[in-house]
Amino acid sequence: MLKLGSHSYADDAVLIMAIVNRTPDSFYDRGSTFAFEAGLERVAQVVGQGAEIVDIGGVKAAPGDEVDADEEIRRTVDFVTRVRADFPDLIISVDTWRHEVGRAVCEVGADVLNDAWGGHDPKLAEVAAEFGTGLVCTHAGGALPRTRPHRVHYLDLMADVLARTVSLANRAADLGVDRGRILIDPGHDFGKNTWHSLEITRRLSEMVATGWPVLVSLSNKDFVGEALDLPLEQRLLGTLAATAVCAWQGAMVFRAHNVAETRQVLDMVAAIKGSRAPRRAIRGLA
Amino acid sequence: MIVSAVSCPHPPLLMPGVTGGTVAEVEELRAACLRAIAALLEARLDLIVMVGGVRVHEGDEPLSLTVGRSLLAEAGCGVRVDPIGIRMDSSVGQCLKIGRMVSKRTGRIGLLVMADGSARRGLKAPGYLDRRAFLFDGRVEDALGGPHPSRLADLEPNLASDLLVAGRAAWQVLAGAFGGRTARAVKLYSDDPFGVWYPVFLWDPEPSDPGH
Asked: Cis peptide before B12, with omega less than 30 degrees from 0?
């Protein structure tokens, strides 16, 4: 069972974590929700489209202008406060690797700390334990935050992914993070080239088999673009294909830009799997 | 005696199949590398000494030498190859010494140096942008193009490391191998299609003066 915020989910649940960037320069939305009101509109929109979780981020993952902890807190805390007030039942995740930011957003009601850089700041898990929030444990191959992979090589990729994420998860649990609130994420493109990201997608079932709930963040990423040789704005279909493959193998949480489309893909996969009934079966049954 | 020398870059994407589909910029680079190696092989060699940097976590088959082997195989090289891996954090003195030892070997030797420049040459580069990269690589290009072997000895190891320059140690082996010898240099490629500097140069040394 996965617990996030005040909600509990069965093992066959599939949840959408909608990306809401509070950055002027993130790769996909390029600042479109940087303005406070635009950000709130986006939250309302994705909630309407069926997202159970919003993931609020203040620093883009790619290299660029320095954003220190104070600036990151300025970009996220007031926003989280307002979202918490306007959407009391919404699961709020904050995308940060820094414990100072983690503390600040937990104080105003964040439910999950989404650490995309794989435990770079070991104190972040302690903050999650202290506030009783959830934690995402991501494989980034030891990469420093906001760096690109350069000639990365793994002797055994999947072994590395499993070892790092499971040990982060166990460490978090030992520190007092509720076991039911910990997720693992293979970290598509983080410390990985396209071959690596495709392999972790193909072998996602091995992550699911660990028993920890699996989160995947596929949306419009370079591994999709490189598989199909398509630019950023044309990666939705490739993303949805990867989404279906991950859903089929048992991933539980899908971090996405395009919520409505992702919802439909997840619903279809669930219907195929038999974990949800078709909404309206009449044909041939009348 | 070294009768011919080539400097070639060693990105993983030069290995067969690594790019998946064919990528035009990579094929252009590959063609330049193969032209350089063909010229190296034309010199009636007894031996190829192949030098390449080794990263800290790399074991027996470092990337630089793996790419070198791959290019030599593509070029149909039938000459014996003696690979020398040199730690990328080797001191200048260590590199020059290894180069001098290579220069003293007997037989007709082709020296293949696997080396590339900074990976911080743009906003989209693997190492992002560091404007010092252009100055550093410019100095290497000047040294390779002169050629001015001794200028390669002046490259600072810490700066090279900061700028993600993979070739500093290998180029300093080249500097040690050429000592005071003069040569004619041909530039076959010098570009950074992906934010990493890839130089391909061929050195045709003047025959050593027997009375020197």
From this structure: no
Taking the CA of residue B150 and the nearest CA in chain A, the distance in Å comes to: 30
pTM for this entry: 0.96
State the average pLDDT over residues B4-11.
98
Cβ contact, residue pair A150, B164, below 8 Å: yes
pLDDT tens, residue by residue, A239-275: 999 999 999 999 999 999 999 999 999 999 999 999 9
- Tell me which chain B residues have a C-beta less than 8 angstroms from the C-beta of A147: 127-128
Tell me phi and psi for residue A7, to 5 degrees: -105, 155
Task: Kindly list the residues from chain B whose CB atom is less than 8 angstroms away from the CB atom of residue A231.
Answer: none
Q: Does domain B2-205 have CATH number 3.30.2320.80?
A: no
Mean pLDDT of the residues in chain B: 96
Domains of chain A: 2-273 (3.20.20.20)
Nearest neighbour of B126 by CB, restricted to A150, A153, A226? A150
What is the distance in angstroms between the Cα of B63 and the nearest Cα belonging to chain A?
9
